[in-house]
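User: Fold this; tokens only.

Assistant: Input:
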Amino acid sequence: MELAMVGLGRMGANMIERLLKGGHSVVGYARTPEKVQRIVQKGAEGAHSLEELVSRLSSRRIIWLMIPAGKPVDKTIEALIPLLDTGDVIIDGGNSFYKDTLRRAEILKEKDIRYVDAGTSGGIWGLTEGYSLMIGGDKETVEFLRPIFETLAPAHDKGWGRVGPSGAGHFVKMVHNGIEYGMMQAYAEGFALMEGKEEFNLDLHQIAELWRYGSVVRSWLLDLTSEALEENPDLEGISPQVSESGEGRWTVIESIEQHMAAPVITLSLLQRFLSREEKGFSNKLLAVLRNKFGGHDIKKKEKG
């Protein structure tokens, strides 16, 4: 199948590589020529403008966006609309706010352009492990895109699915990331408690390895925790400041709008705010985990 990818960051580039291995034809575009060249070297076609990108596709065109949420998505869609025809498809695979997705879907519906939201999880590991895809959009369009989703997912019948109409995919991904906040916070606090029990001189990497097998708290996040503690047992040189990119905040706002308590997710979000002022092993571990699964930058501790 033929498609284009807009946004060639690490995740977008990895998705292109997986698609190429699955036999798809991909054209990639980014504002940085160096990023375009990297995906060309992997076997994809490169484009240096949206106009060139669209011109390289035959109908029915498929444009997958992997760009930051908010204004970048709106501006890219605005630029694409006059270049696309009836029935063409835009997929937003980034972490857009679902209410923005609903608004964009209505605008594109008036233009008779299909809009699909694909909440995408898997981070920098998706290339080898596959991506979890939470998809929103009309049934016909999602079915048309099935070969792409089957290639990106861990298996053709696992890890992906249409969860509902437009907006549903990004909504489910938002809640997914809110849960992720809570899980990471629990691991971070637990390991900080053990790190603080100095008289036992606990080996945190050893304990993480023990828990990975047979324990009820085993998970991929625990696997990454073990890996991080093996590489840097004391998390030396890591700043305790933990960033948040929006999804946890949106989840908390949704819980308030639904008058539904979500104390674990809420407190984990607030802890990230507090990390800008506090120090501690738990915050360092949170920062390292974000880097492990998503490639997010780690703030290094300032010297002096």
